[in-house]
Amino acid sequence: MDAHENDGNGVADDALPPPPPVPENVVPLKADNGTEQALEPVKKKVLRVPMARRGLATKGQKVQLLTNHFKVNVSNVDGHFFHYSVALFYEDGKPVDGKGVGRKVLDRVHETYDSELAGKEFAYDGEKSLFTVGALPRNKLEFTVVLEDVTSNRNNGNASPGSPGEKDRKRMRRQYQSKTFKVELSFAAKIPMQAIAQALRGQESENSQEALRVLDIILRQHAAKQGCLLVRQSFFHNDVKNFADVGGGVLGCRGFHSSFRTSQGGLSLNIDVSTTMIIQPGPVVDFLMSNQNVKDPKFIDWAKAKRTLKNLRVKTSPTNTEYKITGLSEKCCGEQMFSLKQKSKNENGEPEMLEVTVYDYFVNYRKIDLRYSGDLPCINVGRPKRPTYFPLELCSLVSLQRYTKALSTLQRSSLVEKSRQKPQERMRVLSDALKLNNYDAEPLLRSCGISINSGFTQVEGRVLPAPRLKVGNGEDFFPRNGRWNFNNKKLVDPTKIEKWAVVNFSARCDIRNLVRDLIKCGGLKGIRIDEPFDCFEESPQNRRAPPLVRVEKLFESIQSKLPGAPQFLLCLLPERKNSDLYGPWKRKCLADYGIVTQCIAPMRVNDQYLTNVLLKINAKLGGLNSMLAVEHPPSIPMVSKVPTIILGMDVSHGSPGQSDIPSIAAVVSSRRWPSISRYRASVRTQSPKVEMIDSLFKKVSDTEDEGIMRELLLDFYVSSGKQKPDQIIIFRDGVSESQFNQVLNIELDQIIEACKFLDEKWCPKFLVIIAQKNHHTKFFQPGSPDNVPPGTVIDNKVCHPRNNDFYMCAHAGMIGTTRPTHYHVLYDEIGFSADDLQELVHSLSYVYQRSTTAISVVAPICYAHLAATQVGQFMKFEDHSETSSSHGGTGVTSAGAVPVPQLPKLQANVCDSMFFC
Questions:
Q1: For position 317, what pLDDT does the model report?
Q2: 624: DSSP letter
Q3: Which of 321, 343, 640, 693 could form an SS bridge with 634, CB 3.0 to 4.6 Å?
Q4: Are 850 and 619 in contact (CB under 8 A)?
Q5: Could you state a single Gene Ontology molecular function term (predicted)?
């Protein structure tokens, strides 16, 4: 019997609340009517949900802060939002598929049919949903509207067949064509505004998420009406003041993120500065020269230009009409012919056709002076079969078009530099944004009874004291302001480097001095470094060869000369960042030979530089630079008494335009308990863009599991004196709130299965914490130009009304405005107090071996990120074709539709090292 039917008591189903949604992997129970007693009861899987907060923490020095949440007052909670689905058709009944035209059509409906809509305002999401406060007069409404000159905002050539490109006099008239649309609105659902009040009490439901979504859509529509570019929950005004050139024809465009959030302090509007990348507006030729970094149009690579320009929108002069670029002409403007209709008729009474070049047509017929387009291709805005050509110099790129490809390293660093804002400046910009938006004048917000305070919300933070650290010779010391240094100090556990060599890929550098200084600096830190066996220089004729060949050749010369495998290779790379040699070199050393290696690009070599390099080398070779004083003697609450493994989990994806690059999942795990400073990693590829890690448990047969967890648990057992972990602490990065339940029910299940597979009777206790960096909550010290001090933690006012979450700024923000890490404690069987847990998270920000500063997110997550990135580089020159199409397009249709290439396994002697350090 279907759950929605009459339930047999004579009560109709609409009198009952709707049944809860059935999760995907639940086995339905068969109703027991007493006859089938003999059957085993089916174990119904209980779904885990994020835990509630158990109490607030109290440790640390209290500090008053401000945050970019603005309090929202809601006075009308008794009404309902009504949700209508929107269908758009052309006159001939064909559905409208182009995006962007919808808003124009519905604006026209709003102007024309005010009385049929009972004078109601509506919120339209630009696609298929529309919301009103209170119901419209009928459940189904149909309207017809006429729009002049529809070039939709993305201009998908929405014209019906035959209208565009009817040669040129038509082309002149085309902008005055009008188009008729039919609009159908049909009632879909009603959402009680009461749901917002429930969400504020921590009772979230489908309804409350929907109700908040409606509020967000109202803000989006408000921005759309001002002509903004909308990107998810951010919007960008067309104002040159907000543009920053980052090179390559790309501008960083500054705008605002705004979203409604429920928090312990009620409903708030979170507003933050946000940046997106746009194409440099203006003459197409200027953009192409910037994009390809050439000084003269004659050097433009037109095949590349064609890919870059496809689907971008241009305005053509002198008529100022907007079109979408579909391609380029085969020939240059002075040679590209087309047929021009003449006034004179031939003997059949049809107009005569004259073949002319595009150049002649514009210069002689239209009397437009063309300075440089004659030798360049034309822009095609028609269809492939029926092209419509314009000379390049008459085309200008429209403003606010997103650039969706990955940025180069130079562009990225330029963007970071130009979008930095000190805390005070950011506060000023946000206050201005709130005034500028003038939400109080938004009629829909007023009809919901919503008003928004203009002041930043005050919150109380606490500053946790920095943990004490241990260095060599039993010395203790306290970091100050989140930093420390090793001047005149030895490392806590230095290694010896005996069999090693230097490898130089044509980097210009005084190697003898470099080696001498490295040995001397190592000695001061307690690392004994012998003289290197040799320095292998790349032979000059190989410099131009492909990266894989260069690595092979140099390795051959190393093998022919070294007496045995070295313990360590120092590798000098010629480029500072993103050297093509990096991935193939790491792969060769770690996967093929099991050799620890450190790459450097020696530009300015000083003591600080050498110390940083030595910290990495020492950690990779099994040493330890510093540790927490509470690790020795072990006195970490909850962790030091019971064998505990700490995991950091992360998945890294290819850049936005590349959908065929496999995603890479990395899990790092602590080893040698009770230490929480030593880690190793396990890395796997998985389907592109899939966020859940699918290889935690991989049963191949009744006795074999090839998953990540088995490998890590066995290493913990062996390195911790034959002890199984009774507690497993999981830090998971990069998961949005909508996926918390999957982490709790899919990933955690796999980990439990991996444990059971090793030992059926073993039941470790779990703690699951999500760390989020890309959110929009920031904290400020009132009246101070500085960032919040390192160790600041906030668990009140702006946190979740029910769930167990907190914000922490463990690091000293030196530039820009500190971005706190938002930790969500989803599950805790171990039973941490709020104070002990925040203390543990804080401490784990101080065990990162690569730097002498506290870092902004716990070390295991940083390590997982490093391991995923480094091993991902192994794949760099494998054969997977770059099928990503030019414009954020996807080479493969859906996520997970490709067989994923496997990563090479690391050699046994390096796989449990901190090779990623």
A1: 85
A2: B
A3: 640
A4: yes
A5: RNA binding
pLDDT, residue 176, reads 46
Query: What b/e readout covers 511-526, taking b as 16+ CB neighbours within 10 angstroms?
Result: beebbebbbebbebbb
Q: What are the angstrom distances between the C-alpha of 150 and each of 164, 322, 584?
A: 12, 10, 52
Do 888 and 657 form a contact (C-beta atoms < 8 A)? Answer: yes
Q: How far apart are CA 393 and CA 359, in angstroms?
A: 11
Residue pLDDT, tens place only, 114-124 = 889 999 999 99
Helix, strand, coil percentages for the chain (3-state, nearest 5): 25, 25, 45
* Residue 886 scores a pLDDT above 70: no
d(CA 885, CA 404): 11
Backbone φ and ψ of 743, nearest 5°: -60, -45
CA 104 to chain centre: 31
The region, left, alpha or beta by phi > 0 then psi within -120 to 50, assigned to residue 486 is alpha
d(CA 351, CA 648): 74
Q: How far apart are CA 885 and CA 308, in angstroms?
A: 10
> What residues contact 888, with CB distance under 8 A and at least 6 apart?
402, 404, 405, 656, 657
Q: Could you give the strand order of the β-sheet that contains 500-504, starting from the edge strand earlier in sequence?
A: 535-537, 500-504, 568-572, 596-600
Closest CA to 520 of 611, 459, 600, 458: 611
Cα separation of the two ends of the chain: 58
Encoded tokens for 787: 């960032």
Lateral strand order in the sheet of 140-148:
123-124, 129-133, 80-90, 178-192, 140-148
839 exposure class (CB count in 10 Å sphere: 0-12, 13-18, 19+): buried
Place of tokens 């004729």: 541
How many other C-beta atoms can be found within 10 angstroms of the C-beta atom of residue 40?
A: 5
pLDDT value, residue 39: 52
Question: Does residue 576 register a pLDDT over 70?
Answer: yes
Q: Kindly provide the b/e burial profile for residues 747-773, where b requires at least 16 CB atoms within 10 angstroms of the residue's own CB.
A: bbebbbbbbebeeeeeebbbbbbbbbe
> Cα separation of 20 and 129, whole Å?
24
- Residue 277 dihedral angles phi and psi, to the nearest 5°: -100, 135
The pLDDT tens digits of the residues spanning 449-486 come to 889 999 999 999 999 999 999 998 888 988 999 999 88
How far apart CA 5 and CA 142 sit, in angstroms, is 32
Give start and end residues of each alpha helix (H) in 384-452: 409-419, 423-437, 443-447
Q: Which residues have a Cβ under 8 Å from the Cβ of 664 and sit 6 or more positions away?
A: 651, 652, 683, 684, 685, 686, 868, 869, 871, 872, 903
Cα(731)–Cα(865) distance, integer angstroms: 12
Residue 684: C-alpha distances to residues 586, 679, 855 (Å): 16, 17, 26
Task: Give the integer Cα–Cα distance in Å for 794 and 834.
Answer: 12
- Between CA 276 and CA 253 the distance in angstroms is 5
Enter the pTM of the model. Answer: 0.86
Structure confidence at residue 42 as a pLDDT band (50, 70, 90): low
Beta strand 679-686 with 663-670: parallel, antiparallel or unpaired?
A: antiparallel
By the 10 Å C-beta count (0-12 exposed, 13-18 middle, 19+ buried), 176 is classed as: exposed
Report how far residue 593's alpha carbon sits from residue 579's, in angstroms, rounded to the nearest whole number: 21
Q: What percentage of the chain carries pLDDT values higher than 70? A: 89
Locus of tokens 């017809």: 144
Residue type, 734: G
DSSP H or E run through 262: strand 250-263
| DSSP-based three-state secondary structure for 54 | coil
Please, are residues 670 and 860 in contact by the beta-carbon 8 Å criterion? yes
Whole-angstrom Cα distance, residue 272 to residue 527?
Answer: 47
DSSP 8-state symbol, 822: E
* Mean of per-residue pLDDT scores for the chain: 86
